[in-house]
Amino acid sequence: NGTAPVTAPQHSVEGFVKEFLRELHFGQGVTLARASDNDQYLALARTVREYLMARWLETLRRQFDAQAKSVAYLSAEYLLGRQLDNALIATDLTEIVEEGLASLGIDLATLREQEVEPGLGNGGLGRLAACFVDSLATMSVPCIGYGIRYEYGIFRQTFVDGWQVEQPDTWLSLGAPWEFPHPEHSVPVHFGGHTETYDDGGVERTRWVPAWDVLGVPYNYMVPGYQNGRVNTLRLWSARATKAFDLQIFNSGEYVDAVRAQTFAENISKVLYPEDSTPQGKELRLQQQYFFVACSIRDFVENVLPEDFDLHDLPERIIFQLNDTHPVIAVPELMRILVDEKKWDWDEAWAVTQKCFAYTCHTLLPEALEVWPVELLGRLLPRHLEIIYRINDDFLAEVAQRFPGDELRLRRMSIIAEHPERSVRMAYLATVAGAKVNGVAELHSQLLRDKVLPDFSEYWPDKFTNVTNGVTPRRFVRLANPALSELITDAVGPGWVTDLERLREMEPLADDAEFRERFRAVKAHNKDRLNALLQRRDGITLPADAMLDVMVKRLHEYKRQTLKVLHIVSQYERIVSGELDPTSIPRRVFAFGAKAAPGYKMAKQIIGLINHVGAVVNTDPRVQGALTVVFPPNYNVTLAETLIPAADLSEQISLAGKEASGTGNMKFALNGALTIGTDDGANVEIRQLVGDDHFFLFGLLEPQVEQVVAAGYEPSRYYEENRTLRRAIDLIASGAFANGDRKVFEPIVSNLLHEDRFLVLADFQSYVEAQERVDAAYLDTEGWTRSAILNVARSGFFSSDRSMWDYIDRIWHAQPVVAR
Ligand code: 26V
């Protein structure tokens, strides 16, 4: 049809150098001699994306021609990590680029470091979304990731005297070479106002008369498949003021106010909310949710589907996967479009809508389940509230028919809660509307059925399913751990990168002494690499020849960073009191990485405690270097990529039944760390796969947790009865880590002794004993290495490719689009 073919630059050193210099000169407007590192990085990024462009356009064309079913992943968060390295491995350009840059006197490593990662997520849920879109691209499955282009992602964490201080994340400030803005495809989004009924040729209909609107500007990002010629799209929305918005106010002569009003509109995509457990019920957050979901549905219906598409066939062409409840407002939005705009019957619209959505739940904490006050929702989205009421009325009528007279059941199952204030339970709405509901690990899915949504799973037993999470082996092994990747490829060939079960073929090599030697050399190399990074980044030096024991994840009481602190303090106390000979145990580095939600006081206290314990322990000569605590600030995807491959021991110590899955646990196992962990989330499946002998299990099991709580848990009893525990807590209470000031950590101490919601004290003894088993196992170097190799070989199940196949089988029924 007359379009010129888009061709990539030549896949050779000369081809690359030519294109790179062209980008430097014509894109950045500088000569090589005067180019800053940032100029060079931007030119490099633009050069690499040129290699992806033809594939991107071709992928879009093929998917359109195939009329295939697409996955629309709706997620308020994508924790992407740096883009450059991932694009390089996807295109197999790493060596060419390295050589080409070297010929110009440029070090690729220096340019890599220029990139500020897009941290558009809080933690597990956002990183999972990034792994999923990577897998779908690699599997050639049509997918659009929809989300929000926050101008400020997760805050940058700094420490001042050991206490967390947040700084804005200005990830866009030095240029954004990976994004493609398309203002011409902007979508209007409406808010507020009221609804009214009108006569539509004898039919009474409802329409929404909104009060204000904003524009959603799409920014496209490439999601390259791994060396398969495919590039999918991630479409993130940015808020702008509409023309109407401007005119109204500008015409009134209030120029300055009008400019300020623009800022108001743009606030919607300004910043990622850094809370990831306690909903704040903030109006702006609901605006964000509706904003991106309204843009995404409109975009899919009007721009992705062919012009003459019959929306009755929508379920054949799309599945909207709801990443937690954050995008659930999409359900009444689609109903509104079908009923109010397309003028369908309610039942007809509901039948289609119910087939278009599926819901993934990511939590078990009751306080993390989103609810929106009816007052707020009705003010911002009056028509959507009406639609939700109607959905609820119809649903409860159905329930009443099946369970006549069961008033209590109706009240329990209602999408509308009456107390403490009238509000919409978003998880219930998602469950009622979704074709499927899934948890993120076997145990979690079971608890979801039995504890969180028991009435619903009784009502619709087949609606509930499990898909255990996974992580992308491209980023978390191939890219993060080149030395291990080479070793694996030597052992089993290169196919493992897209077929991770192939790691199994390494199992016999666990018994090969020479292979174990090479495996240890990889770990040692990765520790050197980490040491160099921490030196550069934070001025931290790691002691040589120490076990690296790592706990990295958001700071949450249920994850129990305090349990690990108590263990460290206890070891320290036993050394200084002469009970423990520091030369009798392996030297250990305890590494932490964790951000606390800015308003979460207790979490910030715990961060302060870790840093203050470190300051004392690290400098006490009596310890003789046996214990070292390090806590580099601002843990993010980039740091994870260097930290995880260096780890010996992975700490997954949440209270059983509280961590939905965990995904860090999988990354560590795949990189040859052994896990010390509770029987929680995906730890359960990791242990089943790697085997009890290669996993350090401790702590109460989930049913036991319930019993202990039901029997009236008294943490102080554990304190009184366990001397080691008592001494550790007393040392903290004494002010030993706060220059003698007993008040500083008093809130933590008294919380542990009198409340301890997450049973830290109940699990302490079991944890200490498991840590003793760790010490003993580590002293057996060959045995430890053997276990580490088996952890890698048996963790292929945790590829997000496998998760995607499970979603496809159990929920989406989509298919790869292969070349014709
Ligand atoms: C929850 C909320 C609650 C309302 C306020 C805002 C907000 C923002 C984010 C979240 C997400 C928290 C849920 C979450 O990240 N869950 C984690 O999901 C991982 C991926 O499934 C899983 O591995 C972790 O166990 C789970 O904690």
UniProtKB/TrEMBL annotation:
Query: Where does the source fall among the domains of life?
Result: Bacteria
Instruction: Write the protein's name.
Output: Alpha-1,4 glucan phosphorylase
InterPro entries cross-referenced by the UniProt entry: Glycg_phsphrylas, Glyco_trans_35, Pyridoxal_P_attach_site
Species of origin: Cellulomonas iranensis
PROSITE patterns, alphabetically?
A: PHOSPHORYLASE
Pfam families according to UniProt? Phosphorylase
Instruction: Quote the catalytic activity from the record.
Output: [(1->4)-alpha-D-glucosyl](n) + phosphate = [(1->4)-alpha-D-glucosyl](n-1) + alpha-D-glucose 1-phosphate
For this UniProt record, give its keywords in alphabetical order, as a comma-separated list: Carbohydrate metabolism, Glycosyltransferase, Pyridoxal phosphate, Transferase
